[in-house]
Structure formats: C-alpha cells, structure tokens
Design goal:
The protein is an all-alpha fold. The chain has one domain: Growth Hormone, Chain: A (Up-down Bundle), CATH 1.20.1250. Helix content is 76%, strand content 1%. It contains 17 helices and 2 strands. A two-stranded antiparallel ribbon has the order 1-2. It is globular.
Length: 494
C-alpha cells in the first residue's frame, strides 16, 4: 500500500535510492508551467503593441523593456535565495508560488490597459512599471516552481521526465494562447493593430494563467510538503545572498550554463520582438495567417519535447542542447537570408507553408532546449552540493531566470534600436500592409534572423566547457545519498 502523508496525499516514494514522484503529481505540477510559457507568448505582443499600435518609438520601447527586465532580473537572486532559506510547515517553495500566481494575472491585465491619451514619457513609464511588476511577480512563482521540480526527483533520467511534463504542458498552453489570441481576441477588423482589443486580451490571459498556477499549487501541495527539507537553519535574505551568490559562480558548470542561456535568450529576444513586425509588414499576413505559423512552432515544440527523452538516453545532455541550438540557428538563417537577397519573396497565403516549415524546424530545436537546459541546471545544483555542502536550487534557477530575462531585455532593446536605425515608419493607426520601403524590409529580415542567429552560435560555444556528464552525475548522486543519510543520522542523534 502506498504511503500517505498527514493530509491524505501521497508521500514521496524512493525506489532504489531514487526519489520518484507519481504520475498524477507530475501531471498537476506541469500546470504551473503556464505562468512562464503563457507569459512568454503574451509578452510577444508587447513590443508590437507599444510601437505599432500605441506609437512609441522603437528606441523608447526597447529601452523600457530592457530597464524593466534587467531590474527584474536583479530581483531573481533575491527571490531564489529567499526561496532556498524559507522555512515553513508547507515547505520552502509553495507559499511563494501561492502568492505569485494571482499577482501575475493582475499585472498582466494592467500591462495591456494603459489609459487613453497618455503622453509618450508617461506611457514609457507605464510600460516600465507594469512590465517590471509582471516579471517580478511571475518570478515569485516561477523560481520556486522550477526549484521544486528539481527537488521532486533525484535521478538523472527522472528529472528529465519531470521537465518533459512541464515542457509538454508549456506547449499546450502556448497553443491555447495562440488560438485564443488570433481566433478570438484579435479576430475582428484591424486585427493586432486595433488598440481596443488589447485590454480584454490582457485580462483573459491573466485569468487563464492564474487558474493554471492555482491548479498546480493545490495538486502538488501534499506531496511537496513531505519532501526532505534542509537540516541547516535559513539565512537572512541579504546576508544569505551575499555569501551564496559568489559561491554559485565558483561552480564552472553553472558559469557555462549561465553564459550559454544568456546568449540564447538574446537571440530569442531579438527574434521574438520582431516577429509580428516581420509577419505583418514583410510577409503581409493577417492575424488569421499568422496563427498557423505560430501553431506550427508550438506543435513542433510538442514533438521535440518527447523526442528529448530518448535522445537523452543515448546522448549527453550537452549534446542534446547543441542539437537544439543547431536547429534554432537554421530556422533563423535560411529563409531570412533568401528573402533579404530577394530570391524568395512570397506574401500573404503564398508565404504561409514556407514559414510554417521554417517555424517547425525552430520549434523542434526549442523543444529539446526546454527540457535539457533545466535538467542540466538541476544536475549542476547536485554538483554544487557535493562541492560546497549546501543545496542552492533556488539560486541556480534564479541564474537561469536572470539570463533569460536580462538577455531578452537586451535583445528587445537591440530590436527597438534596429527599428529606429532602419527608420521604420510610425505605423500607429496605419492600415494593415502599410507601405514600407523594400530596402528597409530587407534589413528588418536580417535583424530578425541572421543577427539573432549569431548569438545562438555563441550559446553553443559557451556550453562546451560544461562537464556534468552521465558518469559524473552517477558519482555525484552516490555521494549525495551517503551525505543525506549522514545528515539524517546526525539529526536523530541531536
């Protein structure tokens, strides 16, 4: 008979020295990925909304996004350290998640609801404040959530399984957001260039993400509160961070992952910020035509996620990430270069099949990355415990979050500068398919793809020194098992 905790939920099971959550716990845990994945899809509309709809210059929007994301990224180590050092009868992670979920929904609604008639400087301030607020409260949920996933399972392959559940649900929520956006919220006249549609879009998406986050918290509560807790007392917020942050960066495996993720997210930030501009003005596509291209991307991610598990059984995690980066780089270069050279220039419906195929290639690559990157970070956290005697999952995933946010902000800032450098016209209130000079469109395509791909290449090179192989992790796991058994005996004797 399965063990149960005091609340009637399943107690964590250990099979052959390995912590393995049951199926339903992994499934309900996966719902929490909606906060991160859903936010990222919704945030893809922010750059277009504030430039092409509200009329702010690309530079102002890019700087606003960079400020908000970089300041928010500085908060991540604080949240991660606080999560690591929190001690409560509900565990270290869930109280923060329960607070972050509703605040994320509220901040998302406000981001897409600035009052009418704001002057550019005030609109710029609104964007900074609510974009920073959104990322801050989302981090309050996401960082403990990611760290909880690393704690729920201890095996090399089982951790990849937990992340795969997360990745699969992340794709599902991405598909749901895409369909709702283009088929419901922006389906009317004017599409994504119609300002009146955005407040309802922000509110609807906020409610969806809050609901999914709440399901996760309720679903894993009983299991998570029974996980092994640290035997050392928690440190103060700033005192702990001052000691722990330099310690984290002393781990070469963490440094390699951090720089690789930083460069990848710069690439993703540039590419993602210019997506709607390229689809609308270069390929001259309506929202109804953009939708299948985006769906092809997310469906391909869904295909890439389950493929990752057999790849990880055959190859090292580092190799799988390099494979994923290679596919992403291909998706940012071939079609874009041909269009910039004028060799390939379909528009409207004629462009859709080619763009869908290109998006699918990148999606499979991203599917590999969304599983392998967090799984590698969890392995690096194990190495950290062996090297330094303390677990720092919160700070490790804060590092991953810092890289994604700061780099995405820098990428979006670069995209904003690029729009103004190209003298891209102010398209606020312009009709769909507004005329833009051909030379400007060609430069936009190069910024959208090949420029971003350069940073993707850098991400692959930065990962090469990472050294936690399958063999190394087996050694780490054995040493940690001995260490934790000794900790338990010491606790009993005291």
């Amino acid at each position: 008979m399965a063990a149960v905790d005091a609340l009637g939920g399943p107690a964590p099971a250990v099979a052959e020295g390995e912590l393995k959550p049951p199926f339903h716990v992994k499934l309900l845990y996966a719902f929490g990925q909606a906060i991160e994945s859903g936010y990222l899809i919704v945030a893809g509309f922010v750059f277009f909304y504030y430039t092409a709809v509200l009329g702010l210059s690309g530079t102002m929007v890019g700087v606003a996004l960079a400020i908000s994301m970089c300041l928010d990224a500085v908060m991540d180590p604080l949240i991660g350290s606080f999560s690591d050092n929190l001690r409560s009868r509900f565990g270290r992670r869930l109280p923060l998640m329960a607070l972050g979920a509703p605040l994320t929904g509220l901040a998302l609604w406000m981001l897409f609801s600035p009052p009418l008639g704001l002057q550019p400087l005030i609109l710029f301030t609104w964007l900074v404040v609510f974009k920073m607020s959104l990322r801050g409260v989302a981090s309050l949920y996401n960082l403990p959530y990611a760290a909880l996933g690393a704690e729920m399972a201890s095996g090399y392959a089982e951790r990849a399984s937990v992340v795969a559940y997360r990745g699969a649900f992340g794709v599902l929520i991405s598909i749901a957001v895409t369909i709702l956006a283009y088929s419901y919220f922006f389906a009317g006249p004017g599409g994504i260039q119609q300002r009146a549609y955005y407040p309802a879009f922000g509110m609807g998406m906020g409610l969806m993400l809050f609901g999914a986050g709440a399901i996760c918290c309720l679903g894993v509560w009983s299991y998570a509160r029974q996980l092994p807790q640290p035997t050392t007392p928690g440190a103060t917020l700033f005192g702990g961070l001052a000691r722990e942050l330099p310690e984290v960066f002393r781990n070469a495996s963490f440094r390699s992952l951090f720089v690789s993720a930083l460069l990848f997210w710069i690439a993703a930030g540039i590419n993602g910020a210019l997506n709607n501009h390229a689809y609308t003005f270069v390929w001259k596509m309506t929202p109804q035509l953009i939708q299948p291209v985006n769906l092809a991307f997310y469906v391909a991610i869904m295909l890439g996620v389950p493929v990752t598990r057999p790849l990880l059984n055959r190859f090292e995690k580092k190799t799988v990430i390099l494979q994923g980066l290679g596919l992403v780089i291909l998706s940012m270069t071939i079609v874009h270069t041909l269009r910039a050279l004028g060799v390939f220039a379909p528009v409207g419906e004629a462009a859709v099949p080619f763009l869908m195929a290109n998006a699918a290639v990148g999606g499979v690559g991203v599917g590999l990355l969304v599983v392998a990157y967090p799984a590698m970070m969890a392995d690096a956290a194990d190495e950290h415990e062996v090297l330094f005697g303390a677990r720092r999952e919160g700070l490790y995933f804060a590092g991953l979050g810092f890289a994604s946010k700061a780099a995405s902000g820098l990428g979006q800032m670069a995209a904003g500068f690029a729009l103004d450098a190209l003298r891209f016209p102010d398209t606020a209130h312009a009709a769909l398919g507004a005329t833009v000079p051909e030379h400007t469109l060609r430069l936009l395509i190069l910024a959208w793809g090949p420029l971003a791909a350069v940073f993707g290449v850098g991400a692959g090179l930065a990962l090469l020194p990472y050294a936690v192989s399958r063999e190394r992790h087996a050694e780490l796991a054995a040493r940690l098992q001995v260490k934790r058994a000794e900790d338990v005996r010491a606790g009993r004797s005291s």
